[in-house]
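Reminder: ligand-aware prediction takes two inputs, not one.
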Amino acid sequence: MKIIGISGTNSSDSPTEKLVNFMAQHFASQVEFEVIELKGLPMFNESNDLSNQEPLKSLVAKIEAADGVVIATSEHNRSIPSALNSFLEWMSFTVHPFDEKPVMVVGTSVTRQGSASAQLHLRQVLDAPGVNALVLPGNEFLLGQATEAFDENGAIKEANTVDFLESCFANFLRFIKAADSLQIPDEVRFEPGDYQVKTKGHNGDLPMVVSFSENRIEDIKVDTSGETEGIADTVFERLPQEIIAGQTLNVDAVSGASVTSYGLIDGVAQAVKLAGVDPNILKKRPKPSKSQDLSPLEYETDVVVVGGGGAGLAAASRVLQAGKSTIVLEKFPALGGNTVRAGGPMNAADPDWQKQFAALPGEASVLKEMLDYDLAKIDPEYQADFKALQGQIKDYLAGKADYLFDSILWHRIQTYLGGKRVDLNGNEIHGDYDLVKVLTDHALESVKWLADLGVEFDESQVTMPVGAKWRRGHKPMESQGFAFIKTLKKFIEEHEAGQILTETPVKRFLLDEQGQICGVVALNAANRQVIVKAKAVILASGGFGANTKMVQKYNTYWSQVDDDIATSNSPAITGDGIKLGQSVGAALVGMGFTQMMPVSDPKTGELFSGLQVPPANYVMVNQQGKRFVDEYEGRDVLTKAAFDNGGLFYLIADDEIKKTAYNTTQASLDAQVEAGTLFRADTLADLAKQIKVDPQTFEETIAKYNSYVDAGVDPEFGKEVFDLKVVKPPFYATPRKPAIHHTMGGLKINTKAQVINEAGQVIPNLYAAGEVAGGIHAGNRLGGNSLTDIFTYGRIAAKTALEKM
Ligand SMILES: Cc1cc2nc3c(=O)[nH]c(=O)nc-3n(C[C@H](O)[C@H](O)[C@H](O)COP(=O)(O)OP(=O)(O)OC[C@H]3O[C@@H](n4cnc5c(N)ncnc54)[C@H](O)[C@@H]3O)c2cc1C
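Here is what comes back for the chain with flavin-adenine dinucleotide:
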């Protein structure tokens, strides 16, 4: 069951907010409880309707999808706070998400007097036409003297008060069930036939055909070709089936694929209307029924893996290769986490393969810089490798130097130098030598391991994702990170000893009598506890890039992380594994350093919208139409430069550059041009007008850039590696802005992927791999190094767990 908790105030750390947060934590084992905040919402304004725009749009969707809503209010002049009042005005103006929604009212007051008047006021508002909520009668929970009511962990101190809250909440859950069963379906009569409709999916149009008999929706056929493989698959498998089985449009969006989910529901609603029935009748019908059995489910396995992204599936596959059993618990309906979103290139030095590619202009000078580099600036543990690398570079430059150079040492030193940073407090960080050595030594082995399992790599090209600093990316033939997830999933499913349970977020560890980890406890979509006993637990739950609060809490690197910053991450990536590790005393490392992706979609944080091309082909212009940075720089330099230039900037491409873009179809580009999220013009002057920069300045910028490509030298910003010029129409401008992309910090691990506690000791039976672990990438992760990390340390975690059994 899904509950939304709303703290009816916009002030931080208020007792009202504490009460909702306490409820979210306290009832987490019974329901999925999400807290939403009113902070930062626009004040209600009748003449400027924003209810269908962000951030209100997402809140409407969340309330509509919830089974019930808890609203906490404080009291101001015997009525509710103005922030809550304004919010409820939005929610009853042109949208009505509270219509027949079960709501529980709770209140806090700093005095003994309580918040009875405000709660009564809130009930009246909720009951008013336009809002029309179903308010839980009685069960008035008021927390008086609320500033003293919580302990330092945010828990309510008084046991009696907690008991009363529990009993009110239990009544609320009963009320929700009763309200659900009272929804009497209206009679409907469709005009039978097949109706063709088109709505918006995630990547563009989502066409579908919905078939009706007189009384039923009989079939929903969706053309899924435009949507991202892997992420949206669950939507197409699940929603049509639920809609048809329940003859209802009151179905939950699939977490992580909400845009596609709402697109599909909207499409069916359109078809229902064409078939002569009011879709609201189907939207008000009860949700498809779920099993009422709430007894725990118990499993036993050798290794339980928390998280079904790349690291988790690699670890599970490695366990199966050794003939042992494994269960993967995945929080979301679809596997893949951030891995499925990845562009695909995975770094590994493979000089024999790279030799066949010609060197690009500028690459030799990057290598020469290493010969002139001051050895004193290299940390002692890396110096021997650095000197050996200098020897390799000298040998290479002594020849024709016309092919692409690479070596494990070059990869290692670039990972180290690329990650070495100083934070705002003057603290220096660089990658742990042992962890970086293992990563770079075993990188190619990971590529080969994946290839053996069936991932097909495109050996005809060596790629370099943004911020990678060198061309050593092995890119799968199939689209994006899905290529890895699909292969590993198939491998696990083919083994009887392997099991994958989706929609089963892990909540805590199972501890034995000695307090040692012996499994995990999760909660599945049917609200049943899932208890998995295991000899080892591998945490592979990813980082915390989708948890802005957590990024802000630990941040020591960026001068500011805005509340409304976008992220390129899956919404599942909220730092769960890090918190689980902390619950058993794990040490954390490098948490203050997060990576922004400079070239993200300004609104959605997405990476692969517009024309995303290799940095040798980037031309970045600011809102004045001028270049402002060496486009070949690392991600944090690009991000800082973007922030200094107002955040928003444009990637310029021409028809030839377009051919080097990642994962782009003509149809999706056309759809973006039509939607106004990508600009296209036959002349540079026209393009300049579209992006609102001075045409003359813009034309001069591009002419200068083209002359630098010809000369192989950029006197303005020092770009050293170029490929194509901007010459052939049509020209494109892709708007970009930095978004949270990667969290380098995480659980402290050793080279065997064992988790280390605050005292520097190994925590028995606990392993971590992938973005949940810290220490490798330090202050900045090179593009393409994460996939190498997750598949290398995922395998290592499994290997160690098996050895220790
Ligand atoms: C848009 C994008 C593009 C990228 N491109 C590249 C690239 O081209 N090359 C590269 O090297 N790197 C790339 N990266 C980085 C890389 O994809 C990630 O760092 C990497 O995939 C992380 O893998 P992981 O297995 O550690 O975590 P994830 O793949 O994120 O998987 C973690 C999984 O754990 C699940 N989970 C979370 N909490 C729980 C819980 N409590 N219980 C159960 N399950 C849980 C999540 O739902 C998720 O499925 C990219 C990242 C993004 C966001």
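The chain is about 35% helix and 20% strand. The chain has five domains: 2-182, 193-284, 297-339+496-538, 344-494+541-595+741-803, 599-739. We will return to this case in the review session.
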